[in-house]
Amino acid sequence: METTVKAENILKSNGLRKTQIRLEMLQIFMGSKHALSVNDIEKDLKSSHDRVTIYRALNSFEENGILHQTPDPNGNMRYAICSDSCPEHVHQDKHAHFICEECNQTYCLEDVKIPDVQLENGYQLNSISYTMNGVCKECQLN
Ligand SMILES: [Zn+2]
Ligand SMILES: [Zn+2]
Ligand SMILES: [Zn+2]
Fold this sequence. Notes:
- By secondary structure, this protein is of the alpha+beta class.
- Helices cover 33% and strands 20% of the residues.
- It contains five helices and five strands; from the N terminus they run ααααβββββα.
- A three-stranded mixed beta sheet has the order 4-3-5, with no helix packed on it.
- Strand 3 and strand 4 form a beta hairpin.
- The chain is globular, with a radius of gyration of 16 Å.
- The structure holds zinc ion (3 copies).
- One zinc ion (ZN) binds at residues 68, 70, 80, 93, 95, 97, 108.
- One zinc ion binds at residues 65, 68, 82, 86, 91, 93.
- InterPro entries: FUR, Fur_C, WH-like_DNA-bd_sf, WH_DNA-bd_sf.
- Its cofactor is Zn(2+).
């Protein structure tokens, strides 16, 4: 399916209004193999938008289970598209993330599932992150 149509469908099925920036951002994410930071998105957008607009779009995508947060090497946030559509407000992206030491990109390892853990009593679990570091496929070829 063409990415424009795909992006429109994602917005529609999540009840989000179709705006140029939302469509464009979704297409940027669909075309990227790795997670993207706000800087990356800003660079890839054809027209310039202020950061507030970009953050707002990211927030609504995250709330609607379209994008999830992923780590970067400096503890900042990157975002990646959710694989199987996550339900609203509950992300089920229980996969590991891989940070490449050469290109510094973050990759979703959809097939590497985070194991279920049992916490001792008294701790409430809100999120788990499972990050691995190494050299990605692309960088090993170079
Ligand atoms: Zn998700
Ligand atoms: Zn790499
Ligand atoms: Zn991910």
